[in-house]
Amino acid sequence: MDLNFKIQNWLKERLNRTCHRQLVVISGPQEWAEKETQAILTSINVTESKSLWVGDRIGSAQHIDCTAYRQHLGKEYAALAYNAYSGLNANALMAFSGSISSTGLMVLICPALEIWPTFRDPQVTNGSSFGIHQSNGPSHFILRLISLIQSDPNSIIITPQDFNGRNSYVALPELSRTLNETTPEQQRVIENIIQSTEGHRHRPVVLTADRGRGKSSALGLAAKVLIYRNNKRIIITAPHKKNVEQVFSFAQSDLLRTPGVDAGLRFVPPDVLLVDDYETDLLFIDEAAAVPSSILKALLEKYPRVVLSSTVHGYEGAGRGFELRFKPYLERNNKGWKALSLKTPIRWYREDCLEAFWFRCFMMQDAQPFRIERTTKNNTFNQPNRHSLDVGQIPRIEILTLSSHQLIEEPDLLKQTFSLLVNAHYQTSPDDLVRLLDAPEQRVFAYTHNSQVIGVALIIEEGGAQLGQLSKSIIQGDRRVKGHLVAQNLALHTAREEFCLTKQWRVVRIAVDQRQRRNGVASQLLSVIKDDAEARGIELLTSSFGASREILHFWFQNGFSPMKLGFKRDAASDEASLIVGKALSANALTLVTNTNGQFGEELNYHISRYHRMTDTAMLTQLLTQCHHESLTQDELQQIECFLASKNPFDTFARVLAKYLLAKLSSIKQSSEIPNDANLLVATLIQFKPIQVLIKEFALIGKKDLNQRIKLALLGL
Fold first, then answer.
1. 20: which DSSP letter?
2. Do both 112 and 188 map to the same domain?
3. Other beta carbons less than 10 A from residue 119's beta carbon
């Protein structure tokens, strides 16, 4: 039986019966694989308009780049061809898998399976840090992917020599269900959303679902009922407006601008909602896992009736971290909140093969947090990649340096490590799994208890010889190379080539099991990382993150100094990005000390321009980490005069600010910051408007503010 006959027989069976969505892997020479793919699409009568081709394609036929996947979200295709010869983008694979309609095919074109792991993937090459050479060895991610494909009973493998696989038929009971119609599950969600506009306030509804479950349609249909029948005003917010296009479609967006009609649905960005006041009967917060917790909390406080919705798993990251971190907050502050979920897919059949495969590939299934039971036993280890610890009588504690090979050879270790990253941080995406297994510049440290991973730290190499010849161009702003985020940023900011030339490790992420936070796990990880870095000749440890009070306390407690605060807020965290550093050599100590001194001066200079409305308590913490000059005798006399007089603080504002900064620089611990220091920073450093100060600090008026400032100064 020749290859063509087998393929045609498979396709004929597929056309005669209802099949699940499936993955088809066409593995072989590129030209042959592309022609075979086109022949399959033609055989099942899939037109260009009903299909999508991702990556290279013979001739001038229509195709898109794999990085353009966001432009095709919300669209559906009967078949999709992905040419891995153009590069494998994990996020794109996950996103595109959700765009294939029921019974459709996802065709993956790739080199012969025996050579694919060593294929020079352009996506991997382009994504690597400048100067970092790819390993000549095989891609561990591709090795794992091939293993999953070959062991999957529902994946089709076609090579020039053979055809392997079978159709996966939809079970008869499932065939009775009509897809893309409102399910009883959705109807219950819609009813609950409608009911949330009545009754008790501040009892939010939280809706979670995987993609394809009808989350957007449920929100849109609920909005439609509320607008048409109840004349309700609804605001929807999300990280990006494009996230909610389907909601508008189901709600019938023509209602938005109807003259003389007060009811309707409108989009407002999250930050605008906080600053301006809007009259609304109901607030939708879509993709809530991607909205910073601080903003979610503020919106829940400001708007009495809120529906939060979030995707559990997806190309853009995971909502698992949202569930673990935010739902406990609701339990404490919003008694009576309601949790809803959508389990049944509406765009494809239950037991869908394609979704199951990619979920398994990218380990997007829910992971359960691990809990430590304390005992009195303690064991030690002496392996080269292991560091034994004695921490609070917890048995068998180790910190391991994990290699890609080790992660592949120990699937359970890989699953635990990646699941922890998924649980701890909403932005952990399929791309992160690829980097975990294949990025040559990345190191992985795992904190384990009885072989269970409860803490993970990811490290990236930066600077050194790789940037040696480019250092002058970088500080002059003529070059910006891939990777080396902190090294280039600090070099450009300070005009010091040394930041390019200094060998450094950047802590990309530290993730700790939710139940084990504040138990010293992350600090122990940093301690081992520091020792390992010093042994390898690394001179500087750095990190860059969205600045918040809790995070600042952690880094300062571990001996890191602030070096640069960004002017703009990060779109994901709504926080200004802060760079911190810790010197591991005498040369690096000079760099860190000088940069920290510059940081203090610049922070004071820029606060009123770029950070006027930034969290005051966080800025106060930052100011304690900077050196500020002492006051002269004349300036001290002016302070005494202000305290003894009835003069307004404006008269002595400059010298009062200088006095405040000098006092803050003498504080060593966050716990030592006086309660009213934030009032002084907000008034004298940030120059917050009087209306804001009155509201934020519960003041009666300007006279009260003047008196509170005097009392605060006396308390310093």
1. -
2. no
3. 18
